[in-house]
Amino acid sequence: MDEHAHGCTCFIIPSKMLRQLADEATSASERHSLLDQVELSAHLRGQRSVAPLVMGLVAATGEKRRTVYDAQHKTALPGKLVRGEDSKPSSDKAVNQAYDGAGATYDFYREVLKRNSVDGKGLRLDSTVHYQTNFNNAFWNGQQMVYGDGDGKLFLGFTGAIDVIAHELTHGVTQYAVPGGLVYADQSGALNESISDVFGSIVKQWTLKQNVEQADWLIGAGIMAPAVGKALRSMADPGNKELTWSGDDQPKNMAGYVQGGDVHTNSGIPNHAFYAAAIALKGNAWDKAGPIWYKALSLLTSNSTFADMAKATSDSAALLYGVNSAEQHAIQAAWKVVGVA
Questions:
Q1: How far apart, in whole angstroms, are the C-alpha atoms of residue 51 and residue 65?
Q2: Are 292 and 314 part of one and the same domain?
Q3: Which helix or strand (DSSP H or E) is residue 128 part of?
Q4: How far, in Å, are 189, 224, 265, 290 from residue 256 at the CA level?
Q5: How confident is the prediction along the chain (341 residues), in pLDDT tens digits per residue?
Q6: How many domains does the chain have?
Q7: How many CA atoms lie within 13 A of 3 on its CB side?
Q8: DSSP for 82-111?
Q9: Which residue from 25, 71, 118, 126 could staple onto 144, CB 3.0 to 4.6 Å apart?
C-alpha cells in the first residue's frame, strides 16, 4: 500500500451517539466519562499511527496469524501479549472472542473472496482487549483492532459481536484494496463506513449460515443494554428506531441525504443499496452480491462518491457475470431504489 494511502482510525460507535447518551446521562460522572471518551476518540483520529515494525508482521502466504494483547485498562498499544496463533484458549472470554472473531473474518476473506488477510499479503491480525476502563467503543487504528469493555450499563462489550469485529477489520481491507484508500469524510467516508457494514453483515451471515431472507441485517445487535437500544443500524430499513435505537438518523435514500453529515449517518444509503441488491439476487449474500461489492473496491478512487460506487458495482457485475446480465441489472436497480443514478 502507498504510505500516503488514506487509512482511518475508525470507531464502531459514532461520537455523536456518545454525545447524545451523555446528554441523557442520569449522573454527572457518567456524563463526564462519555464526553471524555468523545475527546479521546477525536485525539486518536488525529494521530498518525507509528508502531514498531513487528506490528506489520506478514505471515506466509495463506497462513492465518492472530495475536491478542491485553491493554490492562490502559491506553498504550498493543499491550501485554496474551494469546498467539494455535495457543490454548485463555481464561479471559474477551481474549478468546477477539481471537475467534479475527479468525472467522480471515477465513471468510480467504475462503470466499480469496484474499489473504486485510492487506491481501498475509498481514498478521493483531487485537488488543481491555482498552482503557469502561471504554464504550471498538476501533481499527490503521494497523490493528482495539476493544473497550463497555461500561456495563450502556454498552455490554464489543468482542462478542462478529459483525463488529468484521466491520472494523474491513476498514483495513478498504485501506488496502481501494487505490489510495477512501478519504474518511463526505460521501467517500460514508462509503468507507458502508463497506464495513456490508462485509460485517456478510461475515455474520456466513458464520451463522443464514441466507438473505433469514438474516436480521442489523449492525451491532447485542452490544447495547436493552435500555439503550437493540442495534446501531439496520441495513434493511435505515433510520427505523424501532429496530435500532432512539438516535438512529440514517437516511435510506438520497431524499434524506444530510449535506455535510456524519459518515455513520449517510452510510445508510449505500447500505440499503447493498441490501436491495442482495435481496434481488437471492440466496446467500456471499455468493453474488458480496463478491460484486468486493471487486468494485479496486475500481474506486480516494474521493469516490455514491454514484462512483454505483458505477463500480455495475461494472464489477458486468466483469463477473457479463454485460446486461441479470446480476448487473439487479445491481443497477438496487441503486435506483436509493435514488443514486
A1: 18
A2: yes
A3: strand 125-129
A4: 17, 26, 10, 26
A5: 444 467 789 999 999 999 999 999 999 999 999 999 999 888 888 764 433 333 444 445 568 999 999 999 999 999 999 999 999 999 999 999 999 999 999 999 999 999 999 999 999 999 999 999 999 999 999 999 999 999 999 999 999 999 999 999 999 999 999 999 999 999 999 999 999 999 999 999 999 999 999 999 999 999 999 999 999 999 999 999 999 999 999 999 999 999 999 999 999 999 999 999 999 999 999 999 999 999 999 999 999 999 999 999 999 999 999 999 999 999 999 999 999 98
A6: 2
A7: 4
A8: EEETTPPPPS-HHHHHHHHHHHHHHHHHHH
A9: 126
Nearest Cα neighbor of 6 from 263, 306, 303, 295 is: 303
Grid coordinates of 72: 490492562
Catalogue the active-site residues. Answer: 168, 264
- We report the CATH number of the domain holding residue 296 as 1.10.390.10
Sort strands 218-219 and 145-147 into parallel, antiparallel or unpaired. unpaired
Report the CATH number that the domain containing residue 85 is assigned in CATH. Answer: 3.10.170.10
Same structural domain, 155 and 262:
no
Task: Map grid coordinates 452480491 to a residue.
Answer: 289
> Does residue 164 contact residue 138 with C-beta atoms inside 8 Å?
yes
Last residue of a domain, one of 124, 149, 177: 177
Q: How far apart are CA 149 and CA 137, in angstroms?
A: 8
Domain termination residue (choose one: 113, 146, 177):
177
The set of residues, in sequence order, having a beta carbon less than 8 Å from that of 3 and lying 6+ positions away, is: none
For the residues of 275-341, what is the DSSP string, one character each?
HHHHHHH-S-TTTTHHHHHHHHHTT--TT--HHHHHHHHHHHHHHHH-TT-HHHHHHHHHHHHTT--
